[in-house]
Sequence to fold (303 residues):
Amino acid sequence: MSKDNSRNKRKNESDKGQVVQTVMSKYFEKKETSNPTENDRTVKKRQKISNEPNWEPPHWKEHWENILAMRITNKHLEPRGCDTIGESITDDKVRRLHVLVSLMLSSQTKDTMTVAAMDRLLDCDFTVQYALDIDVDDLAKIIYPVGFWRRKAQYIKQTCQILRDKYNDDIPDTITDLCALPGVGPKMAYLSKKNCRNRILFIQTLAMDFAWKSNQGIGVDVHVHRISHRLAWLPYDTKTPEQTRLALESWIPRELWNQINHNMVRFGQTQCFPVRPRCSTCLNRNICPASTSKDTTKNVKQK
Fold:
């Protein structure tokens, strides 16, 4: 009797094992066929959208007109930014120098802190000659507390020496020459390799725009990167500001390139915040894919 019970017990355990194996094999088989990898999904998404000829996002002109309108409405809320540096300087060479230095200081630093440091340099009548004469420690005290202020003081002095030797106290007028300057090119070692490249391209683009009024590209920072995704202005998914720049330049008319950055930045600082954006008062709330305050009764009222 005990042998029969033992035999039946082993049989039942074997049957259970087979059932479990069958169920699990079907589960994993289904999972593999129906759940592609993240890379597969990303590739399909990009191919699906970017293959469309002459792609442009819906309502983008309305988005842009509304952003410009809200800049006027929110003007009193806007902080001073690097795009305002040098407005009161009449000497073009000195103005371009201040623009370049402000962009060098702006990495890893809030705009308000950068502007305050540039105001202190303006009070000192900052020029190439001033930078060459002042001790690096004294210069560091003036720009403190911007991020990495000691290293940036060294970069400023090194850059001004190059401007004196090679450019007659002016700044370079090409992307290649700008990249060769300390604190603007690859020597920005205090940033990670990926973010370093993004920041370099951003500074170079804005330097050409603000200093030389040369429309070389769209300056993409965190605000432009975020808002472009929220408005669905990108023909494919992007992960970095540089990818976003290339995606935007693929369809935005070139005459608007030098207007995108400072308008979107101000919009991001006063309306489209990273957290809890003011969707309820945004003029784009009904045509923005990311809006949390769409007016569902709008069409009813129009009828």
User: Anything to note?
Assistant: Residues 32 and 145 are 53 Å apart (CA to CA). The two ends are 85 Å apart (CA to CA).
